Amino acid sequence: MNTRGRFSALAVSLLSAGAAEAYVGPGAGFALLGSFFGLLVAILAGALSLLIWPFRWVIRAWRRRKALAAARVRRVIVIGLDGLDPGLAERWVAEGELPNLARLAAQGSFSRLRTTYPSISPVAWSSFMTGVDPSRHNIYDFLDRDLRTYQPKLSSSEVSATQRTMRVGQWIVPLGQPLVRNMRRSRAFWSILGDHGIACNILRVPLTFPPEKFAGAMLSAMCVPDLRGTQGSFTYYTTDPAEAGATSTAPEATGGMRVLLTPADGGISATLPGPDNPLREDRRPVELPFTLRPQVADGTAELGIGGRRHRLKLREYSPWIRLAWQAAPGVKVHGIARFYITRLEPHIGLYVTPINIDPGNPALPISWPTYYSVYLSKLIGDFATLGLAEDTWALNERVIDEQAFFQQTMDHHEEREKMFLNALRKSREGVVACVFDGTDRAQHMFYRYLEPDHPANRGKDTEVYRHAIRDVYKRADRTIGLALDDLRPDDLLLVVSDHGFQSFRRGVNLNAWLQQQGLLALKDPAAPCGDWFDNVDWTRTQAYAFGLGGIYVNLAGREAHGIVAPADAPAVRQRIVAGLAGLRDPQTGSVAISAVYEAAAVHTGGPYQAAGLDLIVGYDRGYRASWESATGRVTREVFSDNTKSWSGDHCVDPRLVPGVLYSSRPVRAEDPGIMDLAPTILRLFGVAVPAHMTGKPLAIDV
Predict the structure, then answer these.
(1) Exposure of 3 by Cβ count < 10 A (0-12 exposed, 13-18 middle, 19+ buried)?
(2) What is the C-alpha to C-alpha distance for residues 492 and 74, in angstroms, rounded to an integer?
(3) Is 74-139+184-223+387-501+665-687 a domain of CATH 3.40.50.2000?
(4) 3, 162, 329, 349: least surrounded by Cβ within 10 Å?
(5) In terms of Cα–Cα distance, which of 265, 403, 266, 408 is closest to 342?
(6) Would you give the DSSP letter of residue 214?
(7) What is the pLDDT of residues 257-291, one digit of tens each?
(8) What residue spans define the domains of the chain?
(9) Which among 142, 154, 184 is positioned nearest to 547, based on CA atoms?
(10) pTM for the whole thing?
């Protein structure tokens, strides 16, 4: 895979060119292989399904009657609002801005919801669905490290290509399909309910790619790749040389590509890169030509692509445009994208969203059953399928502005609400769960508006979008109102967030601190240390920081070049805890790290503890791992200002960022946690809670 490989949003900042070479993302060529075999597989699966359907129907009907006879509810509706902060919610409820949350709390209850250690979305949502902590579901961060190379890999899914191929002239024909598997462990509650004949409709819950087979319907979410096999890579075309090179970091670290074009014949002509082509020996990306002809007088332009023409308006998103790349004779791969003209004069600027997998013609599995995404696309029109759909990095790099990002966020909420309401109408029993991401993305990108002196405000607007977070909360509140209006007497509505939010003003480079303490060594102390531990001497390194969660000991027998004997590891961990806990920022005088947790002390010692995080760093308010620390760089200074638009975060001390739990029925629990929800839902349906679940059923008055 080439240097376009990125993990977008939080993770997009965590990959550089070298890392991308080592990362094989779900997509990027594999999408073509999926298309190659998809039709045949669909035909065979459909035929088999028709043959066994009568028997399955009888068995499921019997199981459903038996289970529902013991159930205390008929239907549980879960609205997930990623990152909804209890403090902000309480403030705007008190001000009358969120009437439906107020109504829900008055009818039932409201409480803070204990999050996971670490307080990172893929970790918390994995605990939501499985009822266990990371040591039992195996997800500790967006990224994991390859223990052989210390290089990053996506923690949630893994892809292996087929090794069986056949050459036909210039083409390489695969003789098998790639394997795409979910790395999350432990069973989700909907799978267990399915065993008892209770169907669930699961929409866009994070960490559900690839989708699992169960007695229900699912549309995958976080970690669904784009068509290039990345976690979200934009493309920006410009005729302005200054704009083409304008980036605060190395171009390969920006989560997208900028293309400098020269106008000709009154417009621009270019190609839109698709996935790498595994059917060719050189694997070069397939390209789709397009033209853009501006009409400056009326603020429009004509886009010609894929044999069709589309009228675009300045600073307005196009609808989703269906695209197809020809990989070989008879082999096409399909995607969708939206186009947005940032300016028409004196230079042209054209932003193209990450190329989403086409829900109506998916090149990779994004739903269960496979046809579910097709059904939804016919019902509501095309929609974003990318796991991290809101393009945070395009705003971070100022390729788009706040207006464009805010509109994108609202549009995605609208799409998701349509599919959620359809599920409500069609599902009169079982579980309907849908997660909305806009609350999280808005706080990441607009938190600086809540603090006039935030370092990220330098040189940026501080007025126009100062109510953006509140407005996204209000939009989510409208969705809650629609669900409340749909409730029946034997229904339960839960509104859940995985964590809250804090400001991200200053970054802490843990690797720089470890070096200063003699715990991390460089091969050449005078040379810089680039991304992913370039220049780190592993033969003299005892500990290293990776990603956003915390610190790993360079353990002998675990890491390929580990030097710390297992018997000595506790002393190394304690030395780090003693040095980091209470660490102060010399510039501000504030405590930057409030606590450092030994993972074994906050987790239950499950089967995946040994390879997971050793220490979880609890940053205090205003602090987080620096962008450089997250990518394995060693800088000279430990502390730095965060000046990116990404100005709010939750990768801090979990005690500072609890989520929310609103319920239409009173919940009687002193300290509910997100791990408690899976066993609670099982108990409500009269299903025994498996012994491996570490969460506890909550007492709910139903």
Answers:
(1) middle
(2) 8
(3) no
(4) 329
(5) 403
(6) -
(7) 999 999 988 899 999 999 888 777 677 889 999 99
(8) 1-70+156-183+226-362, 74-139+184-223+387-501+665-687, 504-655
(9) 142
(10) 0.90
